[in-house]
Specification:
This protein has 226 residues and is an alpha/beta fold. The chain is 42% helix and 15% strand. Helix 1 crosses helix 7 and helix 3 runs parallel beside helix 5.
Length: 226
């Protein structure tokens, strides 16, 4: 990729976002890490006004990686509350929508852009006791497929990745038995590493991908079945 391109990575202060930011920098991109704390730019992805200010301040963004997200409550569906649902959907789904609406118009105007949305294998399989998270990531997959079709002739490619369990701080608050269950489903019999996911993200953010949009790329150690 050319050194003149700029990438914005949400949730870029830790986990998959930080790994993606590091890998994209290695490809020569100027990378801006957006996070609620610890990033290069401080903003909440649920705050549309803040995102518009960021867009004005940072200038043209060619690559958008939507990594900001939370797991939310670990409990059976029937024990969840509406407020718990709203919190996760606001961040994981509307947060992704908000950044796309803020940064894709400029990409479309310049006839080149790459968007990578971080979904999850949970959005395809559904994990027990993680109904909210699973539903939110299924929404990200549907959003990606829809946006990819809408923008298919603009030069802006929109794809998603669906990781299985990856060793990131995001899982620190996940119940040990839930983590053990998710790990047991991986045929490679190990948890993924952030830098492995970052390689796939880097590919999808580059000129090396040119005939794929609205797609979901599994990175699951063999767990994915469709």
């Amino acid at each position: 990729m050319t050194t003149s391109r700029t990438a914005l990575v949400t949730g870029g202060a830790s986990g998959l976002g930080a790994a993606a930011a590091e890998r994209l920098r290695a490809d020569g991109l100027t990378v801006i890490r957006l996070d609620i704390a610890g990033g290069d730019v401080t903003a909440d992805v649920t705050d549309e006004d803040a995102l518009r200010r960021v867009a004005d301040e940072v200038g043209p963004v060619d690559v958008l990686v939507n990594s900001a997200g939370i797991v939310g409550s670990n409990k059976p569906l029937l024990e969840t509350t509406a407020d718990e649902w709203r919190r996760v959907l606001e961040i994981n789904v509307l947060g992704t929508v908000n950044t796309m609406r803020a940064f894709i118009p400029g990409m479309r105007d310049r006839a080149w852009g790459r968007v990578v949305n971080i979904a999850s294998i949970a959005g395809k399989d559904g994990n027990p006791n993680l109904s909210i998270y699973s539903a939110s990531k299924a929404a990200v997959i549907g959003l990606t497929k829809s946006a990819g079709k809408e923008l298919a002739t603009t030069g802006v490619l929109v794809n998603a990745i669906a990781p299985a369990l990856i060793a990131t701080p995001m899982n620190d608050d996940t119940a040990p038995e839930t983590l053990a269950y998710m790990a047991s489903l991986i045929p490679m019999k190990r948890v993924g590493r952030p830098e492995e996911v970052a390689e796939l993200i880097a590919f999808l953010c580059s000129d090396r991908v040119s005939f794929s949009t609205g797609a979901v790329y599994d990175i699951s150690g063999g767990r994915a079945t469709y």
